[in-house]
Design brief:
The protein is of the alpha+beta class. It is built from 2 helices and 10 strands, in the order E-E-E-H-E-E-E-E-H-E-E-E. The longest helix has 12 residues, at 37-48.
Length: 121
């Protein structure tokens, strides 16, 4: 099996280490360039299945102005657009409080969509 190198910049801390991950198939063989262990774990995840927290807007029944939401944790980057479509297909009901779960298990990711904004009327 042929291996390839992926160049990454770690986003786990302000250092911004330039990482090189050697990938063979769907697994990382080695990581170099990291100053701390967080860089190693970041590169191993990012090189094969990158994760991101999704922030988006969602509509409320009977209101024109949307409110802000986010996923309860990171989801696969490849599902960001699918999750955004699912969020846009739903409308929340008033009242909405910060931290309320608005949508459970978005796109089967195991993550919920939670409110990051207070909307009472």
């Amino acid at each position: 099996m042929m291996s390839m190198e992926k160049e990454l910049i770690c986003i786990n801390c302000p250092m911004g280490c330039r990482l090189t991950a050697v990938v063979e198939g769907d697994r990382v063989i080695s990581v170099s360039g990291n100053v701390c262990p967080r860089g190693d774990s970041f590169a191993r995840q990012e090189a094969v299945d990158p994760l991101r927290v999704l922030t988006s807007l969602m509509r409320i029944e009977g209101r024109e102005k949307p409110f802000s939401v986010k996923t309860s944790g990171p989801i696969p980057k490849r599902l960001l657009f699918d999750c955004t479509r699912e969020i846009m297909a739903h409308k929340a009901k008033l009242p909405v409080h910060v931290g309320d779960v608005i949508l459970h298990d978005v796109c089967g990711t195991g993550r919920d969509i939670i409110s990051t904004q207070e909307v009472l009327t």
